[in-house]
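Technical note accompanying the year-one report. For the benefit of new consortium partners, we illustrate the data format agreed upon in the data management plan: each record pairs a sequence with a C-alpha coordinate string. No post-processing was applied to the example shown here.
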Amino acid sequence: MINQDFDIESLSQNLGGISNDNQQLIKDVQNILRNEIVDEDGLVKLCQQGFTNQTSRLRGIIWRLLLGYFPLNRKYWTQVIIKNRDNYNNIKIENIKKAPPQKKNDHPLSRNTDSDWNNHFQDQQLWSKIQKDVIRTRVKELGKEEFREMLNRILFLCCKLNKMDYVQGMNEFAALILYMCMSDPNEKLQNESDAFYCFMILMTSLKNNFQLQKEKVRAFQDLLKKVDWKLHDHLVNQKMDFSILYVKWFMILFAQDFHIDDSLRIWDCLFCQKNNREEFLYYLAISFLIQLREDLIVGDFGQILLILQNLEKQDINLSEVIQRAHLLQKEQKKC
Protein backbone atom coordinates (compact mmCIF):
# COMPACT_ATOMS: atom_id res chain seq x y z
CA MET A 1 0.00 0.00 0.00
CA ILE A 2 1.09 3.57 -0.63
CA ASN A 3 2.28 5.37 2.46
CA GLN A 4 -0.27 8.15 2.88
CA ASP A 5 1.86 10.01 5.44
CA PHE A 6 3.55 11.96 2.65
CA ASP A 7 1.35 14.86 1.59
CA ILE A 8 0.98 15.30 -2.17
CA GLU A 9 -2.45 16.94 -2.19
CA SER A 10 -1.29 20.21 -0.57
CA LEU A 11 0.68 21.01 -3.73
CA SER A 12 -2.52 22.19 -5.43
CA GLN A 13 -3.88 24.17 -2.48
CA ASN A 14 -3.91 27.98 -2.33
CA LEU A 15 -3.53 28.57 -6.07
CA GLY A 16 -4.97 32.09 -5.96
CA GLY A 17 -2.91 34.61 -7.94
CA ILE A 18 -1.18 31.86 -9.93
CA SER A 19 -1.55 31.93 -13.72
CA ASN A 20 -3.64 29.26 -15.44
CA ASP A 21 -0.57 27.77 -17.13
CA ASN A 22 1.29 27.45 -13.85
CA GLN A 23 -1.77 26.03 -12.09
CA GLN A 24 -1.94 23.40 -14.81
CA LEU A 25 1.77 22.59 -14.41
CA ILE A 26 1.30 22.09 -10.67
CA LYS A 27 -1.66 19.79 -11.24
CA ASP A 28 0.09 17.81 -13.99
CA VAL A 29 3.14 17.25 -11.78
CA GLN A 30 0.86 16.36 -8.89
CA ASN A 31 -0.88 13.72 -11.00
CA ILE A 32 2.46 12.06 -11.76
CA LEU A 33 3.44 12.16 -8.08
CA ARG A 34 0.16 10.51 -7.08
CA ASN A 35 1.28 7.28 -8.73
CA GLU A 36 2.98 4.75 -6.48
CA ILE A 37 5.86 4.56 -8.99
CA VAL A 38 6.77 8.01 -10.30
CA ASP A 39 7.19 8.38 -14.06
CA GLU A 40 10.59 10.11 -14.07
CA ASP A 41 10.63 10.75 -17.83
CA GLY A 42 7.18 12.32 -17.67
CA LEU A 43 8.30 14.46 -14.75
CA VAL A 44 11.39 15.67 -16.62
CA LYS A 45 9.32 16.70 -19.65
CA LEU A 46 7.08 18.82 -17.45
CA CYS A 47 9.85 20.41 -15.38
CA GLN A 48 12.65 21.07 -17.86
CA GLN A 49 11.85 24.80 -18.10
CA GLY A 50 12.43 25.18 -14.37
CA PHE A 51 10.15 26.56 -11.68
CA THR A 52 9.17 30.19 -11.23
CA ASN A 53 8.07 31.70 -7.92
CA GLN A 54 4.55 30.53 -8.75
CA THR A 55 5.57 26.89 -9.11
CA SER A 56 8.52 26.69 -6.69
CA ARG A 57 6.42 24.56 -4.30
CA LEU A 58 7.25 21.63 -6.59
CA ARG A 59 11.02 21.99 -6.29
CA GLY A 60 11.64 20.14 -3.03
CA ILE A 61 10.15 16.85 -4.17
CA ILE A 62 11.46 17.11 -7.74
CA TRP A 63 15.08 17.76 -6.70
CA ARG A 64 15.01 14.86 -4.27
CA LEU A 65 13.73 12.59 -7.03
CA LEU A 66 16.09 13.75 -9.78
CA LEU A 67 19.12 13.61 -7.47
CA GLY A 68 18.16 10.07 -6.50
CA TYR A 69 17.61 10.88 -2.83
CA PHE A 70 13.97 9.82 -3.08
CA PRO A 71 13.30 6.48 -4.79
CA LEU A 72 10.72 6.48 -7.57
CA ASN A 73 8.49 4.35 -5.35
CA ARG A 74 6.58 6.93 -3.34
CA LYS A 75 5.70 4.67 -0.44
CA TYR A 76 9.30 4.88 0.83
CA TRP A 77 9.66 8.66 0.92
CA THR A 78 8.64 9.17 4.55
CA GLN A 79 10.80 6.24 5.57
CA VAL A 80 13.81 7.80 3.80
CA ILE A 81 13.32 11.11 5.60
CA ILE A 82 13.00 9.52 9.05
CA LYS A 83 15.88 7.08 8.59
CA ASN A 84 18.28 9.73 7.27
CA ARG A 85 17.30 12.22 9.95
CA ASP A 86 18.30 9.67 12.61
CA ASN A 87 21.48 8.78 10.72
CA TYR A 88 22.42 12.42 10.38
CA ASN A 89 21.93 13.07 14.08
CA ASN A 90 24.29 10.18 14.83
CA ILE A 91 26.84 11.51 12.32
CA LYS A 92 26.77 14.92 14.02
CA ILE A 93 27.27 13.39 17.46
CA GLU A 94 30.11 11.20 16.23
CA ASN A 95 32.00 13.83 14.23
CA ILE A 96 31.38 17.23 15.84
CA LYS A 97 33.05 17.00 19.21
CA LYS A 98 34.47 19.22 21.89
CA ALA A 99 38.07 18.97 23.04
CA PRO A 100 38.98 15.36 23.86
CA PRO A 101 39.60 14.25 27.46
CA GLN A 102 43.14 13.95 28.78
CA LYS A 103 44.80 10.59 28.12
CA LYS A 104 48.06 9.21 29.38
CA ASN A 105 49.70 8.84 25.95
CA ASP A 106 47.98 11.76 24.21
CA HIS A 107 48.33 15.51 24.63
CA PRO A 108 47.50 18.78 22.76
CA LEU A 109 50.95 18.98 21.14
CA SER A 110 50.82 15.49 19.66
CA ARG A 111 51.11 15.18 15.89
CA ASN A 112 50.47 11.45 15.73
CA THR A 113 47.83 10.52 13.18
CA ASP A 114 45.93 8.50 15.79
CA SER A 115 46.02 11.32 18.35
CA ASP A 116 42.59 12.56 19.42
CA TRP A 117 44.08 15.99 20.08
CA ASN A 118 45.72 16.18 16.66
CA ASN A 119 42.47 15.19 14.97
CA HIS A 120 40.59 17.73 17.08
CA PHE A 121 42.84 20.59 15.97
CA GLN A 122 42.57 19.49 12.32
CA ASP A 123 38.79 19.55 12.67
CA GLN A 124 38.97 23.05 14.14
CA GLN A 125 41.09 24.25 11.22
CA LEU A 126 38.64 22.78 8.71
CA TRP A 127 35.66 24.29 10.53
CA SER A 128 37.32 27.71 10.62
CA LYS A 129 38.23 27.57 6.92
CA ILE A 130 34.63 26.77 5.98
CA GLN A 131 33.24 29.39 8.35
CA LYS A 132 35.15 32.18 6.60
CA ASP A 133 33.18 31.47 3.43
CA VAL A 134 29.87 30.68 5.12
CA ILE A 135 29.57 34.09 6.79
CA ARG A 136 29.52 35.77 3.34
CA THR A 137 27.47 33.17 1.48
CA ARG A 138 23.94 34.18 0.44
CA VAL A 139 23.74 36.55 3.40
CA LYS A 140 20.34 37.89 2.39
CA GLU A 141 18.70 34.47 2.26
CA LEU A 142 20.77 32.46 4.76
CA GLY A 143 22.06 35.19 7.04
CA LYS A 144 20.34 33.91 10.18
CA GLU A 145 22.74 32.29 12.63
CA GLU A 146 20.83 28.99 12.63
CA PHE A 147 21.18 28.71 8.83
CA ARG A 148 24.89 29.57 8.95
CA GLU A 149 25.44 26.84 11.53
CA MET A 150 23.55 24.35 9.35
CA LEU A 151 25.60 25.30 6.30
CA ASN A 152 28.83 25.03 8.26
CA ARG A 153 27.89 21.59 9.57
CA ILE A 154 26.87 20.28 6.17
CA LEU A 155 30.14 21.36 4.54
CA PHE A 156 32.29 20.23 7.47
CA LEU A 157 30.72 16.78 7.68
CA CYS A 158 30.85 16.27 3.91
CA CYS A 159 34.57 17.03 3.87
CA LYS A 160 35.34 14.99 6.96
CA LEU A 161 33.36 11.88 5.96
CA ASN A 162 34.74 11.91 2.42
CA LYS A 163 38.28 12.79 3.57
CA MET A 164 38.34 15.66 1.09
CA ASP A 165 39.63 19.22 1.22
CA TYR A 166 37.17 22.09 1.33
CA VAL A 167 37.35 24.38 -1.68
CA GLN A 168 35.50 27.58 -2.47
CA GLY A 169 32.40 26.91 -4.52
CA MET A 170 31.22 24.05 -2.36
CA ASN A 171 29.60 26.67 -0.12
CA GLU A 172 27.53 27.96 -3.05
CA PHE A 173 26.28 24.46 -3.89
CA ALA A 174 25.40 23.66 -0.29
CA ALA A 175 23.69 27.04 0.16
CA LEU A 176 21.29 26.47 -2.73
CA ILE A 177 20.37 23.00 -1.50
CA LEU A 178 19.91 24.16 2.09
CA TYR A 179 17.76 27.08 0.96
CA MET A 180 15.68 24.73 -1.19
CA CYS A 181 15.03 22.52 1.83
CA MET A 182 14.41 25.18 4.46
CA SER A 183 12.09 27.30 2.27
CA ASP A 184 9.82 24.41 1.29
CA PRO A 185 6.15 24.99 2.19
CA ASN A 186 5.91 21.35 3.30
CA GLU A 187 7.24 21.29 6.86
CA LYS A 188 8.23 17.63 6.52
CA LEU A 189 10.76 18.67 3.87
CA GLN A 190 12.24 21.48 5.97
CA ASN A 191 15.18 19.65 7.46
CA GLU A 192 18.96 19.84 7.54
CA SER A 193 19.44 16.10 7.10
CA ASP A 194 17.83 16.07 3.65
CA ALA A 195 20.01 19.02 2.64
CA PHE A 196 23.12 17.15 3.82
CA TYR A 197 22.37 13.95 1.91
CA CYS A 198 21.29 15.79 -1.26
CA PHE A 199 24.54 17.76 -1.10
CA MET A 200 26.55 14.57 -0.65
CA ILE A 201 24.88 13.07 -3.73
CA LEU A 202 25.56 16.20 -5.77
CA MET A 203 29.20 16.35 -4.71
CA THR A 204 29.69 12.74 -5.80
CA SER A 205 28.75 13.70 -9.34
CA LEU A 206 30.71 16.97 -9.26
CA LYS A 207 33.90 15.89 -7.48
CA ASN A 208 36.04 16.97 -10.46
CA ASN A 209 34.15 20.21 -11.02
CA PHE A 210 36.56 22.44 -9.11
CA GLN A 211 39.49 21.93 -11.45
CA LEU A 212 40.07 24.00 -14.57
CA GLN A 213 39.74 21.59 -17.50
CA LYS A 214 41.17 23.25 -20.59
CA GLU A 215 39.70 20.72 -23.01
CA LYS A 216 36.21 21.65 -21.81
CA VAL A 217 36.95 25.35 -22.16
CA ARG A 218 38.02 24.63 -25.74
CA ALA A 219 34.91 22.54 -26.40
CA PHE A 220 32.71 25.40 -25.21
CA GLN A 221 34.59 27.91 -27.36
CA ASP A 222 34.26 25.67 -30.43
CA LEU A 223 30.54 25.26 -29.84
CA LEU A 224 30.06 29.03 -29.53
CA LYS A 225 31.90 29.49 -32.82
CA LYS A 226 29.58 26.99 -34.45
CA VAL A 227 26.45 28.70 -33.11
CA ASP A 228 27.49 32.37 -33.47
CA TRP A 229 30.85 32.83 -35.16
CA LYS A 230 30.61 36.64 -35.26
CA LEU A 231 30.18 36.89 -31.50
CA HIS A 232 32.90 34.29 -30.97
CA ASP A 233 35.38 36.12 -33.19
CA HIS A 234 34.67 39.45 -31.52
CA LEU A 235 35.31 37.98 -28.07
CA VAL A 236 38.54 36.38 -29.33
CA ASN A 237 39.66 39.64 -30.95
CA GLN A 238 39.09 41.43 -27.64
CA LYS A 239 41.40 38.87 -25.96
CA MET A 240 38.56 37.35 -23.97
CA ASP A 241 39.83 34.48 -21.82
CA PHE A 242 37.12 31.83 -21.97
CA SER A 243 38.50 30.14 -18.88
CA ILE A 244 37.05 33.07 -16.90
CA LEU A 245 33.59 31.96 -17.99
CA TYR A 246 34.43 28.38 -17.15
CA VAL A 247 35.30 29.30 -13.59
CA LYS A 248 32.30 31.62 -13.10
CA TRP A 249 29.69 29.52 -14.87
CA PHE A 250 30.75 25.92 -15.31
CA MET A 251 32.63 25.24 -12.09
CA ILE A 252 29.86 26.50 -9.84
CA LEU A 253 26.91 26.02 -12.22
CA PHE A 254 25.63 29.61 -12.12
CA ALA A 255 25.15 29.27 -8.36
CA GLN A 256 26.71 32.64 -7.56
CA ASP A 257 25.87 35.17 -10.28
CA PHE A 258 22.13 35.55 -9.84
CA HIS A 259 19.34 36.20 -7.41
CA ILE A 260 18.82 32.92 -5.59
CA ASP A 261 15.45 32.26 -7.26
CA ASP A 262 17.11 32.43 -10.69
CA SER A 263 20.00 30.18 -9.64
CA LEU A 264 17.50 27.66 -8.31
CA ARG A 265 15.59 27.74 -11.58
CA ILE A 266 18.77 27.12 -13.57
CA TRP A 267 19.45 24.13 -11.33
CA ASP A 268 15.91 22.85 -11.97
CA CYS A 269 16.85 22.67 -15.64
CA LEU A 270 20.25 21.09 -15.02
CA PHE A 271 18.81 18.35 -12.80
CA CYS A 272 16.30 17.54 -15.54
CA GLN A 273 19.28 16.90 -17.84
CA LYS A 274 20.32 13.78 -15.96
CA ASN A 275 22.46 12.30 -18.74
CA ASN A 276 23.27 15.52 -20.60
CA ARG A 277 23.92 17.96 -17.77
CA GLU A 278 27.31 19.14 -18.96
CA GLU A 279 26.16 19.44 -22.55
CA PHE A 280 23.13 21.50 -21.56
CA LEU A 281 25.34 23.71 -19.42
CA TYR A 282 27.26 24.67 -22.59
CA TYR A 283 24.05 25.59 -24.43
CA LEU A 284 22.80 27.51 -21.42
CA ALA A 285 26.01 29.53 -21.31
CA ILE A 286 25.82 30.24 -25.05
CA SER A 287 22.20 31.28 -24.66
CA PHE A 288 23.25 33.80 -22.01
CA LEU A 289 25.89 35.21 -24.37
CA ILE A 290 23.30 35.53 -27.14
CA GLN A 291 20.92 37.26 -24.74
CA LEU A 292 23.67 39.82 -24.05
CA ARG A 293 24.92 39.88 -27.65
CA GLU A 294 23.87 43.44 -28.42
CA ASP A 295 26.15 44.85 -25.73
CA LEU A 296 28.93 42.26 -26.03
CA ILE A 297 29.41 42.66 -29.80
CA VAL A 298 30.29 46.36 -29.47
CA GLY A 299 32.22 46.15 -26.21
CA ASP A 300 35.95 46.23 -25.60
CA PHE A 301 37.64 43.77 -23.24
CA GLY A 302 36.91 45.79 -20.09
CA GLN A 303 33.26 46.31 -20.98
CA ILE A 304 32.77 42.65 -21.89
CA LEU A 305 34.33 41.49 -18.64
CA LEU A 306 32.18 43.90 -16.62
CA ILE A 307 29.02 42.56 -18.26
CA LEU A 308 29.88 38.88 -17.83
CA GLN A 309 31.00 39.23 -14.23
CA ASN A 310 27.84 41.08 -13.20
CA LEU A 311 25.05 39.04 -14.74
CA GLU A 312 22.69 39.79 -11.87
CA LYS A 313 22.72 43.46 -12.93
CA GLN A 314 21.98 42.75 -16.59
CA ASP A 315 18.56 42.88 -18.21
CA ILE A 316 18.10 39.15 -18.75
CA ASN A 317 14.89 37.27 -19.46
CA LEU A 318 15.70 33.91 -17.90
CA SER A 319 12.71 32.17 -19.51
CA GLU A 320 14.03 33.17 -22.94
CA VAL A 321 17.53 32.00 -22.04
CA ILE A 322 16.28 28.57 -20.97
CA GLN A 323 14.01 28.15 -23.99
CA ARG A 324 16.81 29.13 -26.36
CA ALA A 325 19.21 26.70 -24.66
CA HIS A 326 16.78 23.83 -25.23
CA LEU A 327 16.28 24.91 -28.85
CA LEU A 328 20.04 25.11 -29.49
CA GLN A 329 20.50 21.67 -27.98
CA LYS A 330 17.86 20.18 -30.27
CA GLU A 331 19.20 21.97 -33.37
CA GLN A 332 22.78 20.86 -32.81
CA LYS A 333 21.71 17.25 -32.34
CA LYS A 334 20.15 17.36 -35.81
CA CYS A 335 23.42 18.52 -37.38
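Partners are asked to follow this layout when depositing records. The domain at 214-334 is CATH 1.10.472.80 (Cyclin A; domain 1).
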